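for the recovery benchmark. tokens below, seq after
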């Protein structure tokens, strides 16, 4: 990673100072092309566009992201990574059922409800969070992966996750939480001494209708739910 550090130089900028359209595009494209839930065509949803449908949800939550989120910009001024985070208490007050009802994409709805399922599963294991400013939810890092080598990709992820923790401390948070599904983020959770609260298997998740929407997913894919204390 030392070589990647020598070859790559980035500046951290607040999400509020970045072009919103470009930042959203980095997030949604990264999710659609490289995320562990991007195999929708294998699950009987070949017609849907994850980058477009995730964008609908990002728009809904954008105001929650602005206070703490950021992007990484290279020396040419190109935005190469975006990290979105939100106050866990404030995001928990959002009605995700209502948000899902306003959009018509079965597969993306399933993903959002699965994430809500993880949040509910984690709730009894988390410190009491009855007001804002206690726990930060580190929700997603989007990277222009095709711009870099694998080692450089990992270095960019490392910088983003390090900045997440630094921002959590600067904003006075006592804890942060994150779901980690990518091997990079899982390795970095260990590196930054996060506590693993549980491991979940998306392929075994049963939704409210009694179905397994991600049954086609590789069973080796797991989601780690992590807690970091500051």
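predicted aa per position
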């Amino acid at each position: 990673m030392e070589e990647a550090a020598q070859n790559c130089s980035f500046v951290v900028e607040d999400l509020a100072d970045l072009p919103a359209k470009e930042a959203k595009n980095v997030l949604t494209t990264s999710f659609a092309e490289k995320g562990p839930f991007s195999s929708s065509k294998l699950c009987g949803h070949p017609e849907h566009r994850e980058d477009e449908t995730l964008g609908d949800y990002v728009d809904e939550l954008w105001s929650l992201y602005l206070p703490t989120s950021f992007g990484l910009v290279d020396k040419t001024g190109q935005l190469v990574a975006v990290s979105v985070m939100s106050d866990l208490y404030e995001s928990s007050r959002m009605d995700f059922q209502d948000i899902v009802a306003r959009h018509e994409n079965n597969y993306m709805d399933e993903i959002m409800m699965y994430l809500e399922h993880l949040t509910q599963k984690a709730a009894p294991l988390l410190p009491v969070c009855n007001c804002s400013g206690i726990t930060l939810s580190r929700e997603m890092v989007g990277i222009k992966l095709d711009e870099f080598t694998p080692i450089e990709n990992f270095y960019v992820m490392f910088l983003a996750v390090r900045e997440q923790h630094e921002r959590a401390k600067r904003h006075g948070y006592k804890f942060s939480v994150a779901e980690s599904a990518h091997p990079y983020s899982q390795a970095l959770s260990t590196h930054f001494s996060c506590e693993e609260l549980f491991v979940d298997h998306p392929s075994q998740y049963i939704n409210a209708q009694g179905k397994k929407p991600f049954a086609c997913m590789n069973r080796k894919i797991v989601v780690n739910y992590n807690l970091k204390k500051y």
